[in-house]
Amino acid sequence: MRLPVAIAVLVLVLAAHSDAEEAEPTLEQRFNQFQQQVVGLTDDLTEKTKTALEQFQNSDFAVKTRSFFSEQFEKLKTKFEETFPAQN
Question: Has this prediction a pTM greater than 0.70?
Answer without folding.
Answer: no
